[in-house]
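Tutorial handout. Part one gives the primary structure; part two gives the three-dimensional structure as tokens.
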Amino acid sequence: MIKTYVLDTNVLIQSPESLYCFDNNEVVLPLVVLEELDLHKKDDGETGRNVRKAIRLLEALRLQGNIIEGVPNGYGGTIRIEKNCIDATLPEDMPEHKSDNRILKVCVGLSDASDHPVILVTKDILLRIKAQTIGIPAEDYQKDQVSETENQYTGRIDVFTDEEHFKKFKKQGVPVGVLYQTDENGEKITPEFYENEFVILHSDVSVKKTFLGRISGGMVRKLDFQKETPYGVKPRNAGQQFFQEGLMQPASKAPLVIAKGAAGTSKTFYALAVGLEKVLNHPSGEYRRILICRPNSQFDDEIGFLPGTEEEKISPLMRPIYDNLEQLLDSDEEERYKDKGELNDKIMEIFERGLIKTEAMNFIRGRSIVKTYMIIDEAQNLTPRQIKGIITRAGKDTKIILLGDPQQIDRPYLDEKTNGLSYASEKMKGSPLAWQVSFNEEECERSALAKEGAERL
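Part two.
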């Protein structure tokens, strides 16, 4: 059955191409959506860019025909603009001058005048709730969504094998065909494996006997950097060991590393440790520098026009990076903060030499970044479109590291299923160029309290 989808402004702001993503159905844009697009067309950052793209798409549709009556979308459906359905009525407690309520009024008017199901599509949870109160079906825009967190790719798997193959692991590796898990009834099942997936291999004779490995070409092979201690840091758990493996691999082999995990699992700390090992401790020319970016979710990605250099403006945003550098540059916990001036000088020297550079996220767009060890911290606060823009900026010999916790999102209209970190993780799983790991809650290493909080709260 043909359906009518009414789009909210925030759907176009996140994905301008959503106009063409409803197949052979009817897409309707309330007039108020055009007014809201007009308000944001001069915005900087991703919002302004997406709004301007949506406006260009609408102009192309207008040139095709009468956009008020409906223009073909190329997939058997139509796209049109609807005025505010003046004759439709809303409950008295929904004032019609509010933009959200004007959208709801269009939904009511179309529903009264048509036999087709009318569905509101919006990223705004409260608007979906309001729609339900007046009997209008409402949905989130789902094209860029991935599965629920518990079903998302973790980049790691626990499996068993027989003792004979287990003994041969270090010298020969183990074929994935002899690996298995057990279900709730104790029956053997064969899981699906992905290239570069990390493996905790158990012997079926004794579950306490384990090896760590990685899927490569249909085999589980031992890790290449298991005995390394980058910048003096030693992995404390399997998650850190897997993360170290991806970070230490050259960019030609592992240009993309994705790490998901709760606070305290040392994602940023470990990424910086390997970067310093490659650039400062044993400089081999593999990378020119470390580039660190964090999304500015509090200020809509923009750093404003206040006086000062870019690095001075974003310095508060990068405070967690400096905290980690303090620990790495002075590993003696007893003496670290006795001379804060000297410690600060060490950090400033690295920045002044250009070995580490911090940048605002909005300056990444349009660049080609070469021979750079690039850390994107708090990547869960990026949209799928922003993540795509970052990954496609990678030039020759650049490694991109995406870090974040999908359960700690600060940006409106993003959640565990729609954030850029989870999106990249799902779309890149199985890629020979992407190495991934999700940290478990018990792998929190920040402090006893941080671990307890991650498990209890």
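Part three, for discussion. The longest helix spans residues 45-64. Residues 298-303 have pLDDT under 50 and may be disordered.
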